[in-house]
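Figure S7 source data.
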Amino acid sequence: MTQKKSPKAVFQANAEACDQCGKCPSSCPVTIHVEGFNPRQIIAKVALGREADLMKSQVIWTCTSCLKCKERCPEEISPYDVIQALRRIAIYLELPHPEGYDASVKAVVETGVVQQPQLVRTRSKERKDRKSMGLPPAEKPRDMAAYTETLREILGEETV
Ligand code: SF4
Ligand code: SF4
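Tokens for the predicted iron/sulfur cluster complex:
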């Protein structure tokens, strides 16, 4: 099995290669709307060894995981991966993070999905569930034991 890169290795690989061209903030949907969020600046702070400041701020929790920065970077760098690595360390260090994050992770571990299917609202303002729309019930992972074991393996591979 391929060993996952540690968060520190992710920082190093990305920060060293960034030439601060600015393409990532120009394509980031969050930068347009949220003052203070800028993937280029996040990479620059990591290059300066200021990861701790980023992890203590709420800025790393604002990324929507759209991956546009990764797709557009001419140096094949991924601000997205850096942000995920910062989040992993922040959780590991038990730093403050948004309410609901732990519940989402717990739901994935226990049921395989972030949240259970919700009722949808039709144009005629009716609330419909999967059954009334002719859909089968949402499935859990078929082999829960294998699923949980795989998650444990993934988590066990990571080192801070
Ligand atoms: S697009 Fe890539 S090279 Fe340009 S600033 Fe962003 S991370 Fe750095
Ligand atoms: S993955 Fe995050 S940082 Fe990258 S473009 Fe999308 S919202 Fe911005």
